[in-house]
Amino acid sequence: MTTTEQATGGARAPTAGGRAHTALVTPDSDAASAHGVKRRKSLLDQPYALASPLILVMAFFFVGPLILTIIVSFWEYTQYSIEPAVVTTNYSDVFYGCVAKLPDLCVTFKTYLSTLKFCFIVWAVTLLLGFTLAWFIVFEVKKTSTQIALFLICTIPFWTSNVIRMMAWIPLLGRNGLVNQTLMSLGIVSEPQEWLLYSDFAVILAFIHLYTMFMMVPIVNSMLRIDPEIMEAARDAGAGIWTIALSVIAPLCRPGIVIGSIFVITIVMGDYITVGVMGGQQIASVGKTIQVQMQYLQFPIAAANAVVLLGAVLMIIFAMTRLVDVRREL
Amino acid sequence: MTDRPSRPGGLNRRKFLYGATATTALAASSNLFAPAIRAQEAVTLRYLGTAVNQSAEIAAKVKEDLGIVIEYIPVTTDEVTRRVVTQPNTFDLVDIEYMSLKNVVPTGNLKGMDTSKIKESDNITTLFTEGTIDGKAVGDQGTAPKKVIWLPGEEAKDFADEPTGFMSLIPTVYNADTLGIRPDLIGRPIESWSELLNPEFKGKASILNIPSIGIMDAALVVEALGKHQYADKGNMTREEIDLTVDTLIEAKRAGQFRALWQDFNESVNLMASGEVVIQSMWSPAVTAVRTQGIDCVYQPLKEGYRAWAAGFGLPSTAEGKKLDAAYDFINWFLSGWAGAFLNRQGYYSAVLSTAKENMEPYEWAYWMEGKPAEQDIMSPSGQLLAKAGTTRDGGSYQERLGAISCWNAVMDENVYMVRKWNEFVAS
Description:
The complex is a heterodimer of chains A (330) and B (427).
Chain A: H1 2-12, H2 14-20, H3 30-34, H4 47-72, E1 76-77, E2 82-83, H5 89-94, H6 107-140, H7 144-155, H8 162-167, H9 169-173, H10 178-185, H11 200-224, H12 228-236, H13 241-252, H14 254-270, H15 273-278, H16 286-295, H17 299-323, H18 326-329
Antiparallel strand pairs in A: 1-2
Chain B: H1 10-33, E1 44-49, H2 56-66, E2 69-74, H3 77-86, E3 93-97, H4 101-104, E4 110-111, E5 113-114, H5 126-129, E6 132-133, E7 136-137, E8 141-142, H6 145-148, E9 150-151, E10 166-167, E11 170-181, H7 183-186, E12 205-208, H8 211-224, H9 238-253, E13 257-261, H10 264-272, E14 278-281, H11 283-290, E15 297-299, E16 305-315, H12 320-334, H13 337-343, E17 348-349, H14 352-357, H15 361-369, E18 377-378, E19 384-386, H16 397-402, E20 404-407, H17 414-426
Parallel strand pairs in B: 1-2, 1-3, 8-20, 12-13, 12-14, 16-20
Antiparallel strand pairs in B: 3-16, 4-16, 5-10, 6-7, 9-10, 11-14, 11-15, 11-16, 11-17, 18-19
Helix pairs in contact in B: 1-2, 8-9, 9-17, 10-11
């Protein structure tokens, strides 16, 4: 978040960059002449040249592998070999039986449906939690030092690996776990509640625990930019707390909300570890399917699955960016 | 104690750290105190494998005996295969399962091992070379080692049916798997694989979520239920795969499984916490549950065991000093010390005669003859494994391995099987 901010900030205010190069001075550069300093035209004035290091890094580590994945997804494979070719069987295998089986759902559709269900629930809950927590830190806590302290406390769980944070739930939620013991000793239930662990509930709980932070941070960032006087003005105009939250603050936090949502949704879409550990390996996820195929050296079909997953995620992100122009709002 | 932990989590990583530390320490100390007579620099062998045989003790002993430095590369079972197929130049010696050979040998990345250079090659247990124990044939469904152990030549890409002078792998360890149960929570004898899907254990059963192995366990259940007799459980037809997986799907929908497990620690946790009372399990996981003071049995079943075996292979690029060192190491490995070390962990060694020479008679009687322990049985690292008077699950070597029903395998219809298995997980 901070980096994005800096990057855009830098682009918007060429002065910072311009000033740094005044040493190279010479005639006719717009930015330079604005300062009344003459300077020679430099390579650094070309926006593409400035962006080139990032472009190179992205090309090498992101675009390259992505193109390779797409290429491999059209290859043929056997149990022990992968042959360059252009076949679409991998894609038809991904959607094997999807049309023939209708109205029953095929494995891929089922898997995506279950993943989307998790996405939606987790998104809704983390949004609610993230917004509330951010509100508390930004508007209710008055002292900056307390704000920072509270904010840091939120990051403490991230000092351990997320697998460990997940595992920590297991003894709590198990058949003979703490929650069941407490419920039973209080006489609330007479039988151990099995739906607590290795269930959709457990998966969603772990997701929320793990990812609320990703929603909260961008929202905090957006909220910090809101002038508190706006709230006062709204209050003076007779708005209640709900009206302020929904009609004033929420729209102003839109970029934060969208960025947080992108984080949460992309993570949940690709996650297979949380689904595996908390769901008792019984709940399908797209990531898991890909992993199993990789285990058996079926790289081309795994690549095809990855491309389909990427397409699905891109569509969701595209839809969200329609709602808000993230770049402008930043 | 049996089987390989599947992932480099927990157990593996710890062993790796021990191994790495010991190797580094040795390397360091050898530089400081190297006797002047050692004219040549020590050969380093990069040893790729799962952590099963990768013990710091073995590396230390071989350094002491031969001066060869072993550099362990511990990875998962699947990763071993992937490395051999895609990066054969990154190791000098591989410890790989026989079931993977069908995927590896056709690539030509493994060198046939010249048995004339292996001193104990004639003493390798007949289970590998002929598929027999004491002259009696054992089950050979799946990728039984005898089907894939012989190669027509050093640079072969397929298998030979008859013994030749070249082996694909020199066997290291093997064992036979069965179900693990919690006798305290079940309270009655368990005798058949069919109990895994017995509705009595609804919501308290689990099965391995590694498709190629899980489906074999499921096939043993299907046979035990009397639903179908497979011609070869390790190489099913599409119809058989459908039948087997559909049986699992039906059970899953009825709520039979509490969870599926995929790594060693998961299986231990499921059992120890009482979430599950019956599941397919690996022997060291059973031991791990027991060391927590929880009663857990590696239950022999009347339909027999699902066996697995691993062995040493050489990359086709091996040559010169490294190749000689690899043969030296393998000869050393079969000469008894390492075999005894493995037997004491509950695995079985490939050359029994030399291992016996390196074990105390009471140890041999407990581990190999199925007799009650005369004294407390200790692991190689000195932990108590069994109290005096107890006997080993599954009895003697002949009883246990003689009852093998099938071997871990990779099917011809592997791609279809994986797809179908994903359907089971998604159902």
